[in-house]
Write a structure and sequence with these properties.
283 residues, mainly alpha, two-stranded antiparallel ribbon
């Protein structure tokens, strides 16, 4: 019972922080830069426990946070030149060259795990800026909180629907080798809930002065993309933890585990949402 209360309180504060941060672009950038840094720090601590791996935890974290802020500045128009990415590229070069002098057990392992942290965490989190900042026809940039916020709303709705329908009707395992608790019934139930939520969001927004430019059907398509890739994101993190032989990625969020445990689904859902939305402009 105590764990349930702790988990509930943490969940409420977590959801409130995510929702409130989207009200202001500076708050959004600050919070997710912090999340990026904490996630990479957590990741590096985990992989450094693997035999033969010695990732530079501090430099990797600084690099990931800088990349997020660089993408944020570039997408928002605050820094209109791509030269903002040069320090990040130099940092990556440093992380490669430093292995020449570190005399570690396996340099290839270090390089691989270092780059994985950037690709798995820093790059996906940075795509939230692509979702939030949109260029207009006159060349200016506007901040639109609705789409990135709805990615999280869809993920939460999917988790809730999957848990409820899986508990009631779950019979057929979705991916027993990696996540024995997930069922096809739960996944389908979660998807149905998300499609309903997406329908009402689309109907509400199209009734107003639509900022996203999406139709109801396109909103439902976005919801389905988030469901599919969010589920894959959850499974990817489960495979990561199973490979390392751990149950939780950390303990920073009482009752919810670590940062990767909480944001695993979004790490695949956000890049997929970007690809989906840009694909709509091509057809």
């Amino acid at each position: 019972m105590k764990n349930f209360v702790v988990r509930t309180i943490t969940g409420i504060f977590f959801v409130a922080a995510i929702v409130v941060c989207f009200l202001k672009p500076v708050a959004m950038a600050f919070l997710f830069a912090l999340v990026t840094g904490l996630s990479i720090w957590e990741y590096c601590g985990l992989v450094n426990n693997v035999k033969g791996v010695q990732v530079n935890r501090f430099i990797s974290t600084v690099a990931g946070v800088y990349f997020f802020l660089a993408v944020s500045g570039f997408c928002s128009g605050v820094v209109p030149t791509a030269a903002v990415f040069i320090p990040y590229l130099l940092t990556l070069v440093y992380l490669f060259i430093s292995e020449l002098y570190a005399k570690t057990e396996n340099a290839v392992n270090d390089w691989a795990y270092t780059m994985l942290g950037q690709m798995y965490i820093a790059v996906p989190f940075s795509t939230i800026n692509v979702l939030a900042f949109n260029a207009t026809a006159d060349g200016s940039v506007v901040y639109n909180y609705l789409i990135p916020l709805c990615v999280f709303i869809f993920l939460w709705a999917n988790d809730t629907g999957a848990y409820c329908s899986g508990s009631l009707f779950g019979r057929h395992k979705l991916f027993p080798r990696i996540s024995p608790g997930k069922s096809w019934e739960g996944s389908i139930g979660g998807a149905i809930i998300v499609l309903v939520v997406a329908f009402f969001i689309g109907r509400y927004e199209t009734g107003l002065d639509s900022e996203s430019g999406l139709t109801i059907l396109q909103w439902m398509g976005l919801g389905l993309v988030v469901v599919v890739f969010g589920t894959w994101g959850d499974l990817v993190e489960s495979l990561f933890k199973r490979t390392l032989g751990i149950k939780d990625s950390g303990s920073i969020l009482p009752g919810h585990g670590g940062m990767l445990d909480r944001f695993d689904s979004s790490l695949m859902a956000m890049p997929a949402a970007v690809v989906y939305l840009y694909s709509l402009t091509l057809f």
